[in-house]
Amino acid sequence: MAHVLAFANQKGGVAKTTSTVNLGAALRERGLTVLAVDMDPQGNLTMSQGIDTEGLEKSMYDVLVHRMPITEVIYERELDVAAATIDLAGAEMALSSMIGRERALQRALDAVRKEYDYILIDTPPSLGLLTINALTAAEGVIVPVQCEYLSLRGLLQLERTLDMIRENLNPKVKIKGILPTLFDARTKHGQESVEVLRENFGKLVFDTVVRKTIKFAEAPVIGSSVLKYDPKGRGAEAYRALAREVLNGRSS
Questions:
Q1: For helices 16-29 and 234-247, what crossing angle results, to 10°?
Q2: Which residues pair with 81 in a beta bridge?
Q3: 223: alpha, beta or left, given left = phi > 0 and alpha = psi -120 to 50?
Q4: Which CATH class is domain 3-247?
Q5: Which pairs with CB-CB distance under 8 Å and at least 24 residues apart come from 65-70?
Q6: Which of 12, 82, 92, 143 could form a disulfide with 37 if both were Cys (CB 3.0 to 4.6 A apart)?
Q7: What is the pLDDT of residue 122?
Q8: Rounded to 5 degrees, what are φ and ψ at 19?
Q9: CA atoms 98, 111, 129, 159: torsion sign
Q10: DSSP readout, 29-80?
Q11: Model pTM?
Q12: Which residues of 26-57 are buried (b: 16+ CB within 10 A; e: fewer)?
């Protein structure tokens, strides 16, 4: 059965999609099967693998709202991708009146959990129903956190949401690890932010720190992970290191 990990942080621009794609690519390099599930209406994960969201007739909206088999929206690229389009923005309203609405994604994934070693879920920058679906379906949460002070505050809100999920929906879900991202070693602010993270969250913080590099912006333009686009670069090496930590059970 697949390990299901959600990437969550209600703050936008913290490299959730980048981390989902590139951890997935690093796991694939090791011969593991990976499904990346796009739960963000912006569809950035879908587009980052070279899939034209404008041309898709079926997406995760249909899976969640109409209970379409998830296999019908999976596209084989560098990773297998369960695709999202802007239609997903209407899913929260459509699901709101349904019984068991928080478990729509969990039900969908049950059909393919035996097919993959890892299922990685990219979530929108909010703690709404789409993210709650992801947290209910997941066993672990990876929290990308930008290396700046304001980003640290959102962790407390996420922890409160996880407490609610554990109490009512998924008692097993826990933070797998906190991933420092967008780190700029040239600034004292960045270095101090990582220190504050480690002081407050200790072993929950991954050893891996993902530094800023333009390669993360360039790779999705050609529908590629950074591991394929710049295989020897520091971005690729960071996500290989993260994969090692995840496989070793680090921060769990």
A1: 70
A2: 36, 75
A3: left
A4: alpha beta
A5: 65/91, 65/94, 65/95, 65/104, 67/104, 67/107, 67/108, 69/108, 69/111, 70/37, 70/108, 70/109, 70/111, 70/112
A6: 82
A7: 98
A8: -70, -40
A9: positive
A10: HTT--EEEEE--TT-HHHHHTT--GGG-S--HHHHHHH---GGGGEEESSSE
A11: 0.95
A12: bbbbeebebbbbbbbbbbbbbbbbebebeebe
One-letter identity of residue 54: E
Cα distances from 93 to residues 64, 101, 162, in angstroms, run: 12, 10, 22
Q: How confident is the model at residue 29 (pLDDT cuts 50, 70, 90)?
A: very high
Bridge partners of 219, per DSSP, are none
Residue type, 161: T
Q: What is the DSSP letter of 222?
A: G
End-to-end CA distance of the chain: 18
The DSSP bridge partners found for residue 146 are 181
Pairing of strands 74-76, 80-82: antiparallel
Q: How many residues does the chain have?
A: 252
CA distances from 220 to 32, 47, 151, 223, 229 (A): 22, 7, 24, 5, 9
What is the per-residue DSSP string for 159-220? HHHHHHHHHHT-TT-EEEEEEEESB-TT-HHHHHHHHHHHHHHGGGB-S---B--THHHHGG
pLDDT, tens only, 122-164: 999 999 999 999 999 999 999 999 877 666 677 888 889 999 9
Q: How many CA atoms lie within 13 A of 180 on its CB side?
A: 25
The C-alpha angle 233, 235, 237, rounded to 5 degrees, equals: 70
